[in-house]
DNA sequence: TTGAAAGCGCTAACAG
DNA sequence: CTGTTAGCGCTTTCAA
C-alpha cells in the first residue's frame, strides 16, 4: 500500500502538501497530487491519522441485544446518522449483563469518539466511571442515577398509564403487570407507572399481580403462567416490553386461554407484525428509529463541540395503539365474590 | 492519559520492558511495572498498537438491514464469536443498495482485519475488487459470481423444494412464488428451486405466478395483491423471505382472504413469533445465529492464518416447519376451466 | 533478559 | 502557499 510519502515523491511535493490537499486546502500542485494519488491508488491510513489527531471517526453503541426488534431499530437510527457524519459504528451486545457491559464499555472507550449506551442497571459503575473520561456519552432507553448524562428516554409512566386507563375504561379492575428488572430504568419507571395509575383508578392492591421479569421472552412466559395459576387471577395484564409480551402470548396459547375473552393483554413497544398476531396486539408504541437518531444527534453535538455541556434529557412521547388483544372482562370472572365461586355445591344444597 | 513512557519512568525501566510485560513475556521487573500500571491507571493505546502492528482487532460486517430479524440473528452470532477472540465488530447497513454497500466496504476495508458481507448482487464490483486486497473476506447468505470467496450459504433449492413438495402433497397444483431479486443469490437460487420443484411435480407453468420482489415488506404486500387479482389465481404461495412474507400476510388480511382456506402460504426463514401469527406460519427455517458464527469462524481462521486458502463454501441445511398456514386447497377453486368461470352470462343464455 | 533507537503513516506547528 | 520537522504511542530489531 502506497503511503503519503510515495504520493509526495510521485507528485514532486512534500508530504505536507499532500496532507493539505487531502484536507481540502488550496494547493498549487493539486493536479499533480491528484494524479499521483490515482496512479498509486492511494488511500490515507485512518490509523495513522487517528494516532496523530486523537480522533477515531467511530462511535460505540452498546445495547442489551440487537436481536430485540426495538434495539435493532434503535441501532439502525443511530447508524444512519453516523454514516451521514462519516462515522463508523462499533456494536456491542451486553446481553443484560452488567459485567459484560462493563467489559464492552472499557474496550470501546479507547477506540471511539463517543458512546451511546443503554445501561443494564441504574447503579451502573462502568457508566458512572465514564464521567471521568473525556469521551462524550449519551444514554438511551435506560438511564443511571446521575444527572450528568445526556439521555433520550421515553415517557414510561405516561405509557403505562395509557395502558391501565384503557383497560379500566374497558371495565377491568383486576389488572396485573409483568415488569422488567426494578434495577433498570424502564423496569422501575414502568412499574412506577403501574402503581401510580392503579392508585389513581382506585384499583385494589394485589402484590401478587406484579411479577418482575428480566425483559426476555422466557420470563414473560413464566410470569404469565404464574399469573394464570393465581387462585384469584387477573382479567388483564400489561407487559413491560416486547420480548416478554411474546413470551406471555406463547404461555397463554399453551394454556389454552382465550385472548382477550379470558385475558386482555397490552404490550410495551410495537412490533412490525403486531397486527398479524392472534389476536392483533394492543400496544404502547414509540419510535425506535427516531429514538436512535435523536441519541446520535445529541452525541454528535458533543463530539463536534456544538454542545459543550451534558445533562440534557429528552423524554419522547408514546402512544397507545388499540388492536384486538384487549376487551371487556367476562362478566363472571371478577365481580363475583371469591367465596361463592369456590363454595362446594354440597354446601348450597343444604 | 498515561502512556507507556510514563509507566516505564515510574517503574524505572525502559518502554521496551513495559511492552514486553504487556505482551506476556517474562520480565524481571514485572512487579514494579504492574504497580506503575495500576498507579497510573494505564491502558495501552490500541491505535498506536495498530499503527505499529498493522492489526486492528476489529472486523466489519455489512448486511442489508439489521432490522430484519434474520440479519439481527446473524450479526449476533458473529458478534459473539468476535468478542471471544477479542475483536470488535463494525456494523454497516447497505439497505439493499449496491452503491451504499460499495461505500461501506471501501470505508471499512481500511480499519478492519476481516470482512463479513452479505452482497446485494452477485455481480458485485465492490466485492469482486476486494480480492485484490489482503483483507480476508467471507460472504454470508449471499454470494458473488466468483469461486474464490469463503462463503456460508444455505440450501436454498432444497428449502424451496421442501415447501413446494409439502404444498403438492396437500393437493395444490396452482402454486405461486414471490421471489427476491434475481440479481441476488437467494433471489436467484430460491427461484431456481421453485422452477425445478415445479417441473419435478409436473405443475403447469404459469409465468404470471412468479413475481420478483425486493425482499422488503412492501414488495411482498404488492406481489400478494397482484397474485390475488389474477383471473386464474393460485391456491398457494411460497414467499422467498421473512419480510415479504409479513407483507403478503398483511395484504391477505386486508383483502380479507382466509389463510389457509383460500390461500396457503409458506415463508422462508422462521421468526420467533411465527407460531403466534394468525394463522401460525409454515416456514422453511435455518439457524441465523449459527450461520453467523460459522461465517465468523471461517473468517478468524483466515485472519489468524489457520486457513491460508479461501474458496471454502459451506451450505447449511434448512428445515420445513409445518404450522397452520398451509392446508388442502378448496375443491372448487382451481379445477374448473377458466372459460366457464369468465364467460359472460349472456353468452350462455343464447 | 534488557535498553536504545528506529519507524509505522500521518498532521500541524513553524519558518520561509 | 510551501517544505521541514517533530512527534502521536507503541513494537521490535539490534546490541549489549
From TrEMBL, chains A, B:
Domain HTH lacI-type: 2-53
GO molecular function annotations of the record: DNA-binding transcription factor activity; transcription cis-regulatory region binding
InterPro entries found in the cross-reference section: Cro/C1-type_HTH, HTH_LacI, LacI/GalR-like_sensor, Lambda_DNA-bd_dom_sf, Peripla_BP_I
Domain of life according to the entry: Bacteria
Keyword Repressor: yes
UniProt-listed Pfam families: LacI, Peripla_BP_3
Protein name from the UniProt record: LacI family transcriptional regulator
Keywords: DNA-binding, Repressor, Transcription, Transcription regulation
Domain annotation HTH cro/C1-type: ranges: 5-47
The organism of origin for this protein: Alpinimonas psychrophila
PANTHER family the UniProt entry points to: HTH-TYPE TRANSCRIPTIONAL REPRESSOR PURR-RELATED, LACI-RELATED TRANSCRIPTIONAL REPRESSOR
